[in-house]
Amino acid sequence: MNIDTFEDWIEKHNLSQENIDISIHKKYIEDVFEPVYPWFPNNSWKFMQNALYETLLKSYDKEKLKQKIYDSFSENIFDFGYDSDVSPKMLVIKYKYNYEFTKTDKFKQLLNLFNYTLTFIDPEDRLIYLEPNIPDEMSNYVYDYCDGIIWHITKNKISFDNIMKYGLKPKTASYRNYSERVFFITGSTKDEIYKNILKTKNLFFGSENHKELVLIKIDLKKFKKKLRFFMDPTIQGMRAIWSSEYIPPFCIEEIKFYDLKKELEKL
């Protein structure tokens, strides 16, 4: 069973990309995700979620993986490092001279076996970052504790306009290796949300592709489908989460950074 993306659906229905609006997204959701199929006990949204996150169901053991890597590549490894900026669930390898061993079939097989992904290599400090593919699920936290309100920062106005046209879509990035996803900002208190948003803004602002950042507020209560969210283990000390699911534009609005405190007071 194939699930059409929004772009697939508008192309299949010969709809003009110039005239996309909220009503088109509502029609897409109704057409693609509302039917219940007799051969599948849940609707197609649930089917899509199962397909997206099926690899998250596998188990892993960080200590066993560490030992297996050392047994096979001890001549390449100086130590198993630690980075206080990432979650302790990450496995950080301090390598000796080069990281060519990570390109071998043996190394890739170990990562597949233990369900880890090599997400980043830092040649300056000679560190390799391995991320577990089973992060902590944050869905209940988002809907129950955050009341369905989450935040996202996009790189510029053009990007925001595309989001309002096509919805917020999962994608990959050049700086890390991971499955397609969208990252969001949350917090346990209004003050924590504010600090986390500013921390994220300062992290990206001024880089080549992030010179006019746009802050987005997402109200998931406006969307009757329930998304799944997971903790990003690469960021320590703030509640960064991600999802691999489409979010329609009728849940999304721009919030000016200078209005953020005022907006938080409404929550």
Describe this protein with a few key phrases.
9 helices, alpha+beta, ADP-ribosylation fold, about 35% helix, three-stranded antiparallel beta sheet, globular, 2 domains, about 270 residues
Description:
This protein has helices at residues 6-12, 22-33, 44-53, 62-73, 105-114, 139-145, 157-166, 190-204, 260-265; strands at 77-81, 91-95, 116-122, 127-132, 149-154, 182-185, 214-219, 230-231, 240-243, 252-255. It is an alpha+beta fold and 267 residues long. It folds into two domains: 62-132, no CATH class; 136-265, ADP-ribosylation fold (Alpha-Beta Barrel), CATH 3.20.170. A hairpin with a 4-residue loop joins strand 3 (116-122) and strand 4 (127-132). The longest helix is centred in the last third of the chain and has 15 residues, at 190-204. The mean pLDDT is 87.
Topology:
Blueprint: H1 6-12, H2 22-33, H3 44-53, H4 62-73, E1 77-81, E2 91-95, H5 105-114, E3 116-122, E4 127-132, H6 139-145, E5 149-154, H7 157-166, E6 182-185, H8 190-204, E7 214-219, E8 230-231, E9 240-243, E10 252-255, H9 260-265
Antiparallel strand pairs: 1-2, 2-4, 3-4, 5-7, 6-9, 7-10, 8-9
Helix pairs in contact: 4-5
